[in-house]
Every structure is written in structure tokens, then in C-alpha cells.
Amino acid sequence: METEIATVSVVADEEFLPFKEDTFDLVVSSLSLHWVNDLPRAFREIHQVLKPDGVFIGAMFGGDTLYELRCSLQLAELEREGGFSPHVSPFTAVSDLGHLLSRAGFNTLTVDTDEIQVNYPGLFEVMEDLQGMGESNCSWNRKPLLHRETILAAAAIYQEMYGNSDGSVPATFQIYYMIGWKFHESQARPAQRGSATVSLGDLAKINGLLSRRKK
């Protein structure tokens, strides 16, 4: 696809970005950071390559992603094999995300969450779609295979616990959206503690003052 803007394609590791410090005004990451082995380092790398007052905008899968599939597989494996190993890639909790961004040096942070639910005919279709997206389990210590009986049990559990009235099953994708800025002197800063000239308690009197003015 040709554009009027010159572009350069670079194959790189998020944890070892091949760019100089203070290079970019904007860094965008869309649904790839859950594959990073060292997320704190990746955030530090992104912060380093941003110019002062540069902004990072990102989206990544969150901790509740595919919880239906994860729980069904764990229960089936416990029942049939007496233990379980991870079969879904690990995800970051939203409570950790703001802390990680702050530690990397970002300020004026904004973190939001959203959930998208997709319905499938059954567990096998969920797993086939994930494989087609290249989103198979990335855990290095995962079991090399699942026994047929365990998969069939997981499909039954999935349907029993989460199935919809029309026979389909839901798959939840939780997405974290984040924005963080690199510090610059021109950025707005919070006022010093105790410097306020108006009390929050006075806000309750505003409606009364407005009512009297209208009269």
C-alpha cells in the first residue's frame, strides 16, 4: 500500500528497541504487548525513544481475556488428569498496568478497560480461531498436548458453565487502553498541597446561589 508519508519497516524486539533516545513524538502499540517477556523493560524502552512531551498510546489484552476457555480447560484437566498446566497465554492485571507505566517514567497517565465478547459454536471453534490469529499459548512450560478425553470434557464444561441459550458459547476479550506522556517543562502540573483557594465544601452551595440569581 502506497502512501504520501515515507515509512520504514523495522523488525525489532520491544525490549531492545534499535532507536536513539528522544527520537519519536509518538509511539503506538496495538495488541502486541501481551507477547513481551519483560513488560517493564519494554515500557522503559518506549519511554526512552520518545522525545520530551512525546506520548505513548497503547492497547493490550487484559487479565480477564478468555477466562471462559481458561477455566474450562483447568477444570477438565483437574478432573481427568489430576492437575493442570497453563493453556492460555498469561495476561497483565489492570491494577499493575498504571504502576508499571509510572515506574517506566510516564506521567499524566490514562488507563481504561473494555470487554468484547464474541460468540462461537463451541470450544473447538474458539481454539481454531485463536490458532488462526496466531494467538496460541506462548508459555514455555506448557504441556505439549492435551488428551482427547480432556478436550471433550473441557468442551462440555464450557457449554455447561458459560453456554448461551442458542447453544453458542462466549469468548471474552478484555482490552486495556493506555496513554502516557514523557515529561516536559511545558506540561501542566498539579498544584502544591494546601495551595487551594476554594473549598470543595463550597461546591454544595453553587446550586443555591444559581437559584437565587434566577429569581
UniProtKB/TrEMBL annotation:
Keywords: Methyltransferase, Transferase. It comes from the Eukaryota. Gene3D superfamilies: Vaccinia Virus protein VP39. Residues 10-57 form the Methyltransferase type domain. PANTHER family: ARGININE-HYDROXYLASE NDUFAF5, MITOCHONDRIAL. Belongs to the methyltransferase superfamily. This is Arginine-hydroxylase NDUFAF5, mitochondrial.
